[in-house]
Amino acid sequence: MTRDTTPTRTSPARAGVREWAGLGVLAMAVLLIAVDATVLDVAVPFISESLRPTSSQLLWIIDVYSFVLAGLLVTMGTLGDRIGRRRLLLLGAAGFGAASVLAAFSTGPGMLIAARVLQGVAGATLMPATLASIRSMFCDTRQRMTAIGIWGAMWGGGAAVGPVLGGWLLEYFWWGSVFLVNVPIMLLLLATAPQVIPESRDPQPGRFDLVSAGLSIPAVLAVVYAIKELTTDGPSWRLAVLGVLGVVAGWVFVRRQRTLDDPLIDVRLFRVPSFSTAIVANALSVFALAGVLFFGSQFIQLVLGYRPLPTGLLMLPGTLASVVGSLLAAPLARWWGVRLALGVPLMATALGAVSMVGLSTDGRAVLYAAAFTLIGLGAGVALTLTSAMVVEAVEPERAGAASAVSETSYELGGAAGVAVLGSVLMAVFRGRLDTAALADGDAQAARETLGGAIATAERLDPGVGADLVRSAHEAFVTGIHVAATATAVLLLVTAILAMILLRPTRR
After folding, report:
1. pLDDT at residue number 1
2. Taking every annotated instance into account, which residue ranges of this chain make up the domain Major facilitator superfamily (MFS) profile (predicted)?
3. Beta bridge partners of 363
4. Which of 155, 188, 190 is nearest to 36 (CA)?
């Protein structure tokens, strides 16, 4: 008798009930982090009234969470590959819950800032661990794409829920309630994760390079900080020096990775067209979303006169559309191939951005909601697809480091969107604002922000004040037109490059 030695092809094991239940637990963590990133926006006036922070302290309360999170993503993603992603997830969940309690019961601005720092540290452990765990739990490509789509939907859904949830909580409870909602979800995660999420790590991780970790933090943190501060303070030598230092630290970091046997990040991945295209598309999709949210909320509240809760409801269709887009990413990639599935949504996002040229001072909130919905839909598809492309470019053992790179590009894109588009908008605003009838001090205050112009108008004679408000509204809307056009051009160029660089492969 002869034995058949013909090799047989085995398909990857398909995920079962335990893996899908584990995805639900991971989705809860992502949902919570996304909610926490946006829920604070509507609580700022209440925090200001209760804790009396200075303007600088208030900015730190809002931004320090994202600063710390962005700076630690790479280090924490690689650490999860080494010590175990589930272990890091549980540590992060416990830390996030404790920091949320500390934030809720803060008695002063300094205490709240410290709590937000701790939330950022914990959040940096959670994000890479969730996406990397999905990479190891779902071996079948089609199931993995669906799982990443759900993961992305939770991110978009959390961003949508944040302002609405915050508005509802603040109607009935004190401002600390926006932090306390985190606690029961984190307790549930701690109780269920050990049963449904398998531990995964790199079996041969090599040496953890502390020098590389030390370089990655200032490289990302300095750049993100400089970009964000540019929006509020304008250009300065201090920010320029800080940005240069961040770039230099990043350059040294990359050089070091190319010489190490066990790098923190394998920078050779950026030579792979699918990986580098995914990173760029990821960053620019968030760039558009963040910028539109930044000037859109001001347009609805300060130009059209809506209150915070109706403003959140007007933005809800756009953020819910990003959830739908995330869920559509998997079937679109199967039907069209990756190139079209990424290029067409980026073009749709560009179309949504250019539609905002139709906004005016006499209304059209519906036009903003429709344009933002189109942007959210396209960005939802693009962000989910690029996340899947990034983690599939590496072995499962290195998924944490790859996920961290993807999420760092997300943070950089968001910071750049607010800073660059905000700077463009404010440059147009200051150039077109008519302050000829104002004293020098009033003119300077009016040029700072749209809110500053409206506050200045309230101190002036009714006729002069009305003229100033009218001019401020018109100048701000013109700035939106310029910023939206620039966003559309950038997204269209990215879509064309994606179509050129990516081969028409099927997933």
Report:
1. 44
2. 22-506
3. 360
4. 155
pLDDT digits (tens, 9 = 90+) for 264-291: 777 777 777 778 888 888 888 878 877 7
Residue 233: how many other CB atoms lie within 10 Å: 12
Count the Cβ atoms, other than its own, within 10 Å of residue 347: 19
Is pLDDT of 162 > 80?
A: no
Domain boundaries 16-199, corresponding CATH code:
1.20.1250.20
Q: DSSP secondary structure string, 145-203? A: HHHHHHHHHHHHHHHHHHHHHHHHHHHHS-TTHHHHTHHHHHHHHHHHHHHHS-----S
Nearest-angstrom CA–CA distance, 507 and 493 = 24
Apex CA 419: angle with CA 415 and CA 424, to 5°? Answer: 150
Q: With 70 as the cut, is the pLDDT of residue 111 above it?
A: yes
Tokens 């690689």 belong to which residue? 78
CA distances from 233 to 419, 425, 450, 453 (A): 10, 14, 15, 16
- Across-strand partners of 360? 363
Distance between CA atoms of residues 491 and 283, nearest Å: 11
- What is the SS3 string spanning 284-348? HHHHHHHHHHHHHHHHHHHHCCCCHHHHHHHHHHHHHHHHHHHHHHHHHHHHHCHHHHHHHHHHH
Task: In whole angstroms, give the CA distance from residue 117 to residue 336.
Answer: 43
Question: Does this chain's domain 16-199 share its CATH topology with 263-507?
Answer: yes
Per-residue tokens: 262: 């066990």
Contact yes or no for 489/347 (Cβ under 8 A): no
**Residues near 100 by Cβ (< 8 Å), separated by ≥ 6?**
36, 115, 119, 179, 180, 182, 183, 186
Classified by CATH at the fold level, domain 263-507 comes out as Growth Hormone; Chain: A; (1.20.1250)
What contacts 45, CB < 8 A, 6 or more positions away?
Answer: none
User: Which tens digits make up the pLDDT trace of 164-205?
Assistant: 777 777 777 888 888 888 888 888 888 888 888 878 766 666
**How far is residue 156 from each of residues 37, 119, 129, 283, 376, measured CA to CA in Å?**
11, 20, 18, 15, 9
Cβ-count burial 43-61 (b if 16+ within 10 Å, e if not): bbeebbebbebeeebbebb
Q: What is the DSSP letter of 208?
A: -
Asked if 350 and 491 count as a contact pair (C-beta separation under 8 A), the reply is: yes
CA dihedral 298, 475, 413, 48 (to 10 degrees): -40
**Can you give the residue ranges of every domain in the chain?**
16-199, 209-261, 263-507
List phi, psi (to 5°) of 393.
-80, -10
